[in-house]
User: What shape does this take?
Amino acid sequence: MSAQTYAIWRKNGLVWLALLVLLGLTFGAAHIPLGGLNVVIGLAIAGIKVALVVVIFMGLGHSPSLIRLAAAAGVFWLTILFVLTLTDVVTSRQFQNAHPQTKGGEQSLSRNR
Amino acid sequence: MIARAKVLQPPWKELSRQREGATFGIWIFLASELLFFGSLLLLYTAYRVANPDVFITAGRETDLWYGTVNTAVLMTSSLTMAVAAQAAEADMRHLTIWCLGATVVLGLMFLVFKGFEYAEDIEKNLVPGANFALKEPATQIFFALYWIMTGIHAIHLSIGLGLVGRLAVFGALRGVQLRENPQVEVTALYWHLVDVIWIILYPLIYLMGRS
Assistant: This one.
């Protein structure tokens, strides 16, 4: 194996090992009863894994600012999509819990039980 | 020079400019893909906020082992894809072709495992409809989202298999020059995005209600 081949495998192999360790961690953490924290930990570890793939495998870490801007624009619009929609979803649910007789908001989103 | 002329396409006069354009273009596309999957994730979030306990009951019915093994398989395919792309830059033709081939094999492995998992889900009556296995109606919403999200992900992965396989075959037959070819980087970035989407889906689909 040439020095260059070794360098490529070493750099990417370390990221891969980190990804597998994180997969083991998130798998293990899901089996510990932590209530609402379980989903938070699951998503936090997924976030770290995504960051590793995007920054190193996809090379965003050493990309020109134009490329970073394109990636950031996607995250920016996604944030707006989530924040504006969830503002309504979360608050109308709280309103329904406080006033169960009121049939407000999205019917299909109310408890289907 | 002849090989380079094959890579350089109009309207570009320089390969470096073409590569910048291709990378910028695919990132714009990936950002739009993020919004595409993001809208499905938003739907999932809204229904989960409305039915928190039922979603956990439903999530418990998914097969944790298929999901976890497939996550490892897909992350490994991202490793081989990243090595292929960097080897192509460094003009290491054999390593590039071998790693592209390994990526295709790992991608196929993912689809085979997914197929077995789907067969198991169908056998357990986890397809929304009249014979659905679980009682609470909202569990069907979870499984509708499960089928849509994993199905669309599998379609993306299949498209990626075609793109990576094409580079591997034509690269090996010398029909495509792999060195400095923007197609290699664009394909790699698309493949990594498919992996990223799965990494986000994994805790939302498979890790619920396991404690």
